[in-house]
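lol forgot to send this yesterday, sorry. C-alpha cells for the thing we talked abt
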C-alpha cells in the first residue's frame, strides 16, 4: 500500500473518531443543560447551600479554666433522591447489605440490628426520600468511619451522603454557675441567658452562606469570623465552695431556693454566683441552677436594710452609737395618717423584748422596735420622709447595679409622691415605718451586697461585673476595668460607725455563733416574712446574711439568701442559719487564700487548728502539709492512707484496699472515691458535694460483676 495513502487513512479514522466523540460530548452537554439541568440545580440548591457558621467563642474563668466551649458535631443522612440512583441502582443493590451491617456496627447505641437498618434503607429507596442514620450527633472521628462505609464512601452525588455540621456547647463544670454562664437558644447558636446572651455579639462571630459540592465541614471559610473568647471574673475554686455549702444548707433546711454571691471588695469583681432551686415537682428533691435569683429576684430584704436605715440617722446626726433607747417589751404600735402599724421584735413572745438598748445594741440584736422608733421619731413625726428617701437613694439604692447580665430587676423604693398607685406600689402612713426594718421596699440580693461592699470599701461603691476581658487569640478586643459608681455613699465618720455596728452583730449579737478566733467577720442577719396573696405570711420566711471578711482589712464580701415556701416551716430558716452558711464559705475561702493565711501564720497570738482528713491519696497530703509547714509524725506506707491529727503533727496509717472487695471510701473527696471505686471494678453513682459520708455497699463486701455503688457526699 502507498505509504501516503496509509497515513491519510489513519488521519481520517482519527478525525472520524474525534468527530464522533465530540458529537457525543456536545449531545451530553445539551442533554444535561435542557433535560436534567433544572433537576440538578434544584438538587444542588436543596442539598448544598450551607450556612458556614463561625466557631462560637469560649468562656473562661479568671484562672484560665474553661467554663463553656464549642465542640463540632455531625449528623449524617442517606439521600436516595440524587440523579445517580435514578439512572442506576446497581451500586445500591450490590452494597446495601454491607452498608446496613456497617451502620449497625458503628451505631450500637441506636439499638438497631442489621435487618432493621436494611429495612430502613430499602424503605428510603422505595419512597425516593432521605433518612437520618442516627439520633445523637457524632464527633469527627466517628464521621470519618461513616465516610468509609459502602455506598456512602462515593460521596454526595454518587453515594447520597449528606452531612450537617453542628457546634455543640459544652460546659465542663456542669451546673456550677450555669445560670450565670448562660445557655443557648434551642436550635440556635445564639445565647438565651446569662453571659452567653449578654456578650452574644462577641461570642457568636460572623457567618456566611455558601454553595458547595463538598462536605459542609470542609467548605471555604473565607469571610467567616470566629467568635471572641471572654475571660470572666469567676474563680472556679470560690464558685465550687459557694455551690457546695449553699447546697448542703438548702438540703438541711428543706428550702425552696437559695443564692450566694461573693465579690472582691476593692474591684467589684464577682468571684461566684450560685443559684439553686427545686423544680416544683414534689417527687424531685434535688436542686438545680434554674433561675438567677441574685439578679432577677426582687423582694423585701428584712433586717439587712437596718444598716442603711441607721446610717441615714447617723449621717443626719439624729442619733449616735451610744445613745440609749427604750424598746419596751418588744412591741410598739404606731398610728400615722389613720393607718395603724404594729411592730414586734423577734423575741417578743419568748423573752418579752429587749427593753433598754444602745443604738449599737439595737443593731446587734436586730430590734425592729428600736430601728423603727428611731426613724419614726426623726423622719415620720417631723415630716422628713423625703430626707430619708433621698439619703437612701444617694447611698446607691434606687438603681440597678449595672452588672453585665440581662433582666436585672430595678429596686422598688417608694416615695411620698406615690399616692395613686395600688397594692405595694402605694405610699401610705405605714410605709416608712416598715421600710426602716426591711418591708415595703424591694431590692435584689446583688444590690444589697453592692451596698455592703461599699461599706467594706470605706464608702466607695463599685459596679459589680463578671467579664474582665474579651480576646481574639492574643489580641484584646475589650477590657472591663473596675468602675466606681459612687465615690462616697456617706461620710467617712459614718462608715467607721457602720463597720462597728456590723462587727457588733458577730461579736455579741444575732450572729455571734459565727465568731471565731482566726479572723473577724462583719455583717448583718435578716429574716423576712414572704409577701403572698396580698399579705405577709409569718410562716413562710426568707433568711439572709450579708457581710464581709476579714473585718479589719476587708477582701471579700458575700450575701447568702435562702427562701422557705412551706405552709409550716419546722426547719426555721433564719438569719442565723444564713450566717452559718456565710461562715462555712468564708472559712474555706480564707484558709485557701495564701495571702490571708500567711498573715494569720505571722500572728503568734493565733493558732490554726488543722481539721482532720479521713482517707485519700497519700501524695496529695504530703504535698499539702509540706507546703503549709505542718509537722508529720511519719511518712505514708501506702498510696492510699488515713490521716490522724495528733497534738502537734499529722500521722498516717495505711488504707488497705483488697482486690475483689468493696473498699472503705469514707471521708474521701469525690475525685479519690470515684477513682478507687472504679479501679475496684464498681460502677459509680454520686450524690452531693464535699466528702463521702455514706456508701450504698458496705466496705469489705465481695464485689459482684457490673455492680453499682452509690456514693453520697456532704
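and heres what i got for the seq, position by position
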Amino acid at each position: 500500500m502507498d505509504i501516503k495513502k496509509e497515513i491519510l487513512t489513519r488521519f481520517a479514522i482519527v478525525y472520524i473518531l474525534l468527530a464522533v466523540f465530540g458529537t457525543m460530548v456536545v449531545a451530553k452537554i445539551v442533554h444535561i443543560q435542557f433535560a436534567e439541568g433544572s433537576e440538578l440545580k434544584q438538587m444542588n440548591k436543596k442539598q448544598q447551600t450551607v450556612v458556614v457558621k463561625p466557631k462560637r467563642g469560649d468562656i473562661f474563668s479568671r484562672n484560665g479554666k474553661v467554663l463553656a466551649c464549642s465542640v463540632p458535631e455531625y449528623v449524617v443522612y442517606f439521600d436516595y433522591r440524587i440523579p445517580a440512583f435514578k439512572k442506576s441502582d446497581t451500586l445500591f443493590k450490590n452494597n446495601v447489605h454491607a452498608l446496613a451491617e456497617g451502620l449497625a456496627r458503628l451505631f450500637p447505641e441506636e439499638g438497631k440490628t442489621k435487618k432493621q437498618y436494611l429495612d430502613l434503607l430499602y424503605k428510603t429507596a422505595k419512597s425516593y426520600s432521605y433518612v437520618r442514620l442516627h439520633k445523637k450527633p457524632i464527633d469527627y472521628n466517628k464521621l470519618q468511619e461513616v465516610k468509609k462505609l459502602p455506598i456512602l464512601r462515593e460521596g454526595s452525588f454518587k453515594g447520597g451522603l449528606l452531612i450537617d455540621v453542628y457546634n455543640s456547647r459544652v460546659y465542663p463544670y456542669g451546673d456550677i454557675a450555669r445560670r450565670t454562664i448562660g445557655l443557648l437558644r434551642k436550635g440556635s447558636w445564639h445565647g438565651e441567658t446569662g453571659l452567653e446572651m449578654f456578650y452574644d455579639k462577641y461570642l457568636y462571630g460572623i457567618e456566611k452562606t455558601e454553595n458547595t459540592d463538598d462536605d459542609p465541614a470542609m467548605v471555604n471559610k473565607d469571610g467567616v469570623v470566629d467568635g471572641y473568647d471572654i475571660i470572666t471574673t469567676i474563680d472556679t475554686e470560690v464558685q465550687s465552695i459557694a455551690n457546695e455549702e449553699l447546697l448542703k444548707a438548702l438540703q438541711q433546711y428543706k428550702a425552696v431556693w437559695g443564692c450566694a454571691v461573693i465579690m472582691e471588695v476593692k474591684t467589684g469583681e464577682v468571684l461566684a454566683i450560685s443559684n439553686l432551686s427545686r423544680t416544683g415537682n414534689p417527687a424531685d428533691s434535688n436542686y438545680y441552677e434554674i433561675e438567677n435569683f441574685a439578679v432577677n429576684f426582687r423582694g423585701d430584704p428584712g433586717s439587712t436594710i437596718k444598716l442603711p436605715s441607721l446610717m441615714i440617722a447617723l449621717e443626719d446626726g439624729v442619733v449616735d452609737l451610744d445613745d440609749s433607747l427604750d424598746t419596751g417589751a418588744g412591741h410598739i404600735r404606731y398610728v400615722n395618717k389613720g393607718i395603724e402599724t404594729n411592730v414586734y421584735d423577734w423575741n417578743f413572745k419568748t423573752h418579752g423584748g429587749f427593753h433598754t438598748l444602745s443604738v449599737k445594741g439595737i443593731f446587734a440584736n436586730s430590734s425592729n422596735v428600736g430601728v423603727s422608733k428611731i426613724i419614726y421619731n426623726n423622719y415620720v413625726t417631723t415630716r422628713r420622709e423625703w430626707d430619708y428617701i433621698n439619703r437612701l437613694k444617694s447611698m446607691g439604692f434606687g438603681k440597678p447595679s449595672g452588672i453585665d447580665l440581662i433582666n436585672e430587676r430595678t429596686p422598688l423604693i417608694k416615695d411620698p409622691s406615690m399616692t395613686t398607685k395600688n397594692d405595694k406600689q402605694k405610699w401610705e402612713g405605714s410605709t416608712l415605718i416598715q421600710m426602716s426594718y426591711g418591708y415595703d421596699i424591694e431590692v435584689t440580693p446583688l444590690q444589697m451586697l453592692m451596698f455592703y461592699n461599699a461599706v467594706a470599701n470605706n464608702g466607695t461603691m463599685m459596679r459589680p461585673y463578671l467579664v474582665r476581658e474579651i480576646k481574639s487569640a492574643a489580641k484584646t478586643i475589650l477590657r472591663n476595668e473596675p468602675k466606681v459608681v459612687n465615690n462616697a455613699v456617706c461620710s467617712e465618720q459614718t462608715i467607721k460607725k457602720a463597720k462597728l455596728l456590723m462587727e457588733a452583730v458577730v461579736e455579741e449579737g444575732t450572729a455571734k455563733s459565727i465568731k471565731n478566733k482566726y479572723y473577724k467577720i462583719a455583717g448583718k442577719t435578716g429574716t423576712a416574712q414572704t409577701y403572698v396573696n396580698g399579705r405577709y405570711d409569718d410562716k413562710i420566711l426568707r433568711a439572709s446574711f450579708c457581710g464581709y471578711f476579714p473585718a479589719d482589712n476587708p477582701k471579700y464580701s458575700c450575701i447568702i439568701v435562702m427562701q422557705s415556701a412551706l405552709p409550716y416551716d419546722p426547719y426555721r430558716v433564719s438569719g442565723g442559719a444564713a450566717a452559718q452558711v456565710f461562715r462555712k464559705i468564708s472559712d474555706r475561702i480564707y484558709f485557701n487564700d495564701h495571702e490571708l493565711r500567711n498573715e494569720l501564720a505571722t500572728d503568734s497570738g493565733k493558732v490554726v487548728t488543722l481539721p482532720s482528713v479521713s482517707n485519700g491519696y497519700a501524695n496529695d497530703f504530703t504535698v499539702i502539709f509540706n507546703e503549709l509547714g505542718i509537722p508529720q509524725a511519719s511518712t505514708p506506707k501506702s498510696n492510699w492512707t488515713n490521716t490522724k491529727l495528733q497534738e502537734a503533727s499529722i500521722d498516717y496509717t495505711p488504707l488497705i484496699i483488697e482486690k475483689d472487695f468493696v473498699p472503705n471510701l469514707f471521708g474521701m473527696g469525690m475525685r479519690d472515691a470515684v477513682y478507687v471505686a472504679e479501679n475496684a471494678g464498681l460502677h459509680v453513682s454520686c450524690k452531693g458535694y464535699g466528702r463521702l459520708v455514706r456508701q450504698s455497699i458496705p466496705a469489705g463486701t465481695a464485689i459482684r460483676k457490673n455492680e453499682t455503688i452509690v456514693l453520697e457526699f456532704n
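The first helix runs from residue 3 to 48. anyway ping me if u want another try
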